[in-house]
Amino acid sequence: LSVLCRIPRLGGFQKGRTYSVPPQFAGMNLYTKRTLASYHAQGARVLAYLPDRDEDAKLAYHLGFDEILTNGRKLF
Q1: Backbone phi, then psi, for 47, in 5-degree steps?
Q2: What whole-number distance in Å separates Cα of residue 53 and Cα of residue 64?
Q3: The pTM is what?
């Protein structure tokens, strides 16, 4: 929520920890450069958590998410 409100410092992210981010929250796309940059600026790693569509998983890969966890087929 702190990232969506553009005040990531209130999120209490810890350097070196990995945080999972779903593809969407309340209809808003979370797989964006801004979202990723907010976590990385705090020294946190980001896991793309269960993208439903192949396009979402590929987007997370191209944006530079640190890890991708999916139930889908092997994409890469």
Answers
A1: -105, 125
A2: 17
A3: 0.80
